[in-house]
Specification:
One of its GO terms (biological process) is methylation. The protein has 351 residues and is an alpha/beta fold. It contains 14 helices and ten strands.
Amino acid sequence: MSHDKMTALERIKAYNKGEEIDRLPCVPIVGNTAARVIGVKVSDFRGNGKLLAKAQIEAYKLFKYDSIRIFTDLYTQAEAMGAKIFYPYDETAYLEEPALSGINEIDTLQPLNPYKDGNIPQHLEAMKIALDNVGKEVSITGALVGPFTNASFLIGAESLVRLTIRNPEVVHKLCEVSLESALRYAKAIIDIGCTPSLTDAMSSCTVISPRQFKEFSLPYLKKLIEYIHSRGKSVTLHICGKTNKIWDYMVEAGADCISIDNDASLLEAKLKVGDKVRLMGNVRPSEVMLQGTPEDVKKASIDCIKEAYDNPKGFILASGCSLPTETPLENIKAMMDTVREIGYPINIQNL
């Protein structure tokens, strides 16, 4: 199997300029699977930035993908604002109780302090360690949850969706305080020298309508992305589930790259917004990466490449979302081997 001839930073920089590269950029989105790389429990990451950094650095060194993402779960910001998060012994954390028991408590909410609250200081420590160790060869990003999604963890997802109809003013208040928290966290990430990577699961059309997205998610994403751009950083935006009806809004929000979940079509995205934004995706995390064989991963990767390799604004092969914890390491290797084997420029007739 061929080896990389460029570092990740060299590859992305050249790709952005339309210059020669050795292979297509590839990012299997490794989250808690990194725990398996170094043989620790997922719960060991809580409150331990050094261990989180070690896991992500070693996972990167093993596979040499094109971006490191410091991430454990979606609740980092909400926990720092008072939400109760349950940490299973060896799986991804989940929301146990929202920060608020009712809208009458909304005025008690305060934006987070990224240097003091919850596990955020440990995540920042992990970013700094990763940057110091491998930042000269690969970009280090920190997962940043979008304001609408974070708002859902403050009041509860079902309650938030109901409130978009019954009491939109409250939803905007929750989004505003979530935006301020996101801006503070984004500033801290960028001050270290890393890049925020936006994820906004609850803004999906699987959860809310395009009209609700336009009213309750888009304005806050715009402000957040404007800030990140003002600091000289590009933005990748991931929204889970079905997103084809809001791709234009994701572009309007200012995203430089949109990460397409496996519930959507890369080909459709290319035809609809590919002249405006880079695409990233979308090998199935569960059915293929977790449950499939290396041959399944290779086939699915090639299928994605066929659909989007010629996207006008560029394409990054990736998993459709963060990989499940138990994703076989040989399947991650198979995705990376596939892009190395294909090389660049891509000859579609050979795929």
